[in-house]
Amino acid sequence: MSFDFRAKRFVNGAPHPVAERHRRWMGSFASEERTALLSREVRASLADANGGDEFGSYDPLNQVLMMDMRLYLENDILVKLDRASMMASLEGRVPLLNNDFVAYATSLPLHMKLRGMRSKFLLKRALRGVLPDRILNRPKKGFGIPVAAWFRGPLKEQMLSVLAPDRLSREGFFEPRVVRELIDDHLAGRRDNRKQLWTLFAFQLWHEGYVSLA
Question: Which residue segment(s) compose the domain that 151 sits in?
Answer without folding.
Answer: 147-213
